Every structure is written in C-alpha cells, then in structure tokens.
Amino acid sequence: MITAIVLVHTLADRIPETAQAIADIEGVAEVYSCAGDVDLIAIVKVREHEQLADLIAGRISKVDGVQHTDTHIAFRSYSRADTEAAFSVGST
C-alpha cells in the first residue's frame, strides 16, 4: 500500500465543506483540519503510484474550495507500537 500525505490549502470560509468532500473520496483514509501554514492534511492510501495522479490531481484538486495541494509520498512508517514490537521479539 502506498501512503501519501497531501497538504491542502483551501478557501478559509470553505474548510469544513472542503474537508468533508475530500474525506468522501475513495482512497482518502483521513482528513485533518489544522493550524499553521496548511488548512487540511489528507492521508491517501492507494495500491499503485498511477492512482495517486488520478486521486490527487483528478479528484482532490478539483474539490470546491481547494486552492492548491502539496503531496509527500511516505517511504516508511514508524510508530511507538512498531518499535516496541520489534524490541520485544524473542523476549519473555
């Protein structure tokens, strides 16, 4: 599974509606509204790289209220649970 983090800049008065419209798109796992330089962060999960173009440029970028996006493709996932599981292998 390929994970991409999509930073979404929106019109300020359309954030809730834009977030929900993006969340309703197949392939979008989660959408967060946040403070800072970006209005929304969408977590996208697809099986093939070609699907990213269809999903991001073809669907997310065309949602009413989206001004522009910045996409980051994840190489590896790290979490506390993963780290603890790796170090507990073979221990009793």
Give an overview in words.
It is a single chain. The chain is 29% helix and 33% strand. The protein is built from three helices and four strands. It has helices at residues 15-23, 49-57, 80-88; strands at 2-10, 28-33, 40-46, 66-73. A four-stranded antiparallel beta sheet has the order 2-3-1-4. Strand 2 (28-33) and strand 3 (40-46) form a beta hairpin. The longest helix has 9 residues, at 15-23. The mean pLDDT is 91.
Just name the CATH architecture: 2-Layer Sandwich
Q: The biggest beta sheet, please?
A: 4 strands, antiparallel
Percent of residues in beta strands: 25-35%
Number of strands: 4
Total tally of structural domains: 1
Biggest β-sheet: strands ordered side by side in the sheet: 2-3-1-4
CATH class: Alpha Beta
* Rg from Cα: 16 Å
Uncertain residue segments: none
Structural class: alpha+beta
Q: What global shape is seen?
A: globular
CATH topology descriptor: Alpha-Beta Plaits
- What is the first-to-last residue Cα distance? 32 Å
Annotation field: number of helices: 3
**Arithmetic mean of pLDDT:** 91
List the topology elements.
Blueprint: E1 2-10, H1 15-23, E2 28-33, E3 40-46, H2 49-57, E4 66-73, H3 80-88
Gist of the model:
By secondary structure, this protein is of the alpha+beta class. The chain has helices at residues 15-23, 49-57, 80-88; strands at residues 2-10, 28-33, 40-46, 66-73. The protein has a 4-stranded antiparallel beta sheet.
